[in-house]
Specification:
It is a single chain. α7 crosses α8. β9, α9 and β10 form a beta-alpha-beta unit. 46% of the residues are buried. The protein is an alpha/beta fold. It is elongated, with a radius of gyration of 23 Å. Helices cover 42% and strands 20% of the residues.
Length: 345
């Protein structure tokens, strides 16, 4: 089990619930960044990261801290002084890429600052930032990727920093899984998991789900980000769905529905979509079944808190495993959603 690390008002690692992260897309000093931070927090983001490109971005952490009460992380590249300014402005965590903040003295300056502020640092390695010595020795693989991160971790440890989070991301789900398996066997620091540069919404979610599912079922991962070339609100939604599917966090209502086949004699697919939309924002844990026919439908619906199964002669609604009523297909939406409201309230 990983060790615990405190980030702002949140504890990760050590068996704590897996935290959902995202990253703001607006320039950190802009008013839009504050608005986006609020929207992401309300959507369920647990930790939010911001790019720090200049001194104005670093200073803007004061405004963001006033707007949201979730931990905020400063993403630092190349200029170690921006890390110091971000810490001074209230950043709850610093993220650096191994080797790109310059000489050892710069790392020491960051180390001294995070120790003084009692905040953690994330060493975030990816396939674009592999240390040359490891790249030449091992090639581009899980060993070089993980060892690049561990080299930087050792440097922070040398300067007395022990509140560390590590990430070793690749754009390949397979390499991502191998890198996290490798590093999980080498250290007990909390791991932030995800597939970097995963792509647009559809393919990006698939790549992240493949890698994260493989890791989470092995107990690897303490925080995660579903990185997408899309609105970060979609990252939060996807992350919540992945965690719900693994059973590691419960984000409310779950809809199970038939894949449908030639036996389906009512519009089960459309009804399932309407049901999911109806349940958006519902945090109460519910299992809701929308089934397409009489072969498996009634049995599956009986396993749910509430379910509906359709057939040639109409639909049946089940509540807590018992038949509640038979209804005409034309009344299905009205009748079922009325019963669903009772379950929610």
């Amino acid at each position: 089990m990983s060790k615990k690390v405190k980030i702002g008002n949140l504890i990760i690692g050590g068996g704590e619930p897996i935290a959902v992260q995202s990253m703001a897309t607006f320039k950190t000093e802009s008013p839009e960044a504050v608005k986006q931070a609020i929207a992401l927090k309300n959507a369920g983001c647990d930790i939010l990261r911001f790019s720090v490109l200049d001194e104005n971005d670093a200073a803007a952490f004061k405004n963001i801290k006033k707007a949201v009460d979730i931990p905020i992380c400063a993403d630092i590249h190349f200029d170690y002084r921006l890390a110091l300014l971000s810490i001074k402005a209230g950043a709850d965590k610093i993220r650096i890429n191994p080797g790109n903040v310059g000489q050892e003295a710069n790392v020491r300056a960051i180390a001294d600052a995070v120790k003084s502020a009692a905040i953690p640092v994330r060493v975030g390695s990816n396939t674009g930032s592999i240390d040359k010595q490891f790249l030449e020795k091992y090639g581009k693989n899980e060993v070089s990727l993980a060892e690049s991160a561990l080299k930087q971790v050792a440097l922070f440890e040398k300067f007395g920093v022990n509140d560390i989070v590590i990430s070793v991301k690749a754009s390949s789900p397979s390499l991502t899984v191998k890198a996290y398996e490798y590093i999980a066997a080498k250290t007990d620091y909390p791991l932030h998991i995800g597939v970097t540069e995963a792509g647009t919404e559809y393919n990006g979610i698939i790549k992240n789900a493949v890698a994260m599912g493989a890791l989470l079922f092995k107990g690897i991962g303490d925080t995660l980000r579903v990185s997408l070339s899309a609105d970060p609100l979609k990252e939060i939604k996807a992350a919540k769905s992945i965690l719900s599917a693994t059973g590691l966090r419960n984000y409310g209502a779950e809809v199970v529905a038939c894949p449908t086949c030639g036996r389906c004699e009512w519009d089960c697919m459309s009804f399932a979509e309407k049901t999911e939309k109806f349940l958006e924002g519902v945090n109460k844990p519910l299992k809701v079944a929308v089934m397409g026919c009489v072969v498996n439908g009634p049995g599956e619906a009986k396993d749910a808190d509430i379910g509906i199964a359709g057939g040639r002669d109409g639909c049946v609604i089940f509540l807590k495993g018992k038949l509640l009523k038979k209804i005409d297909k034309k009344d299905a939406e009205k009748e079922f959603f009325a019963e669903l409201r009772k379950c929610i309230n």
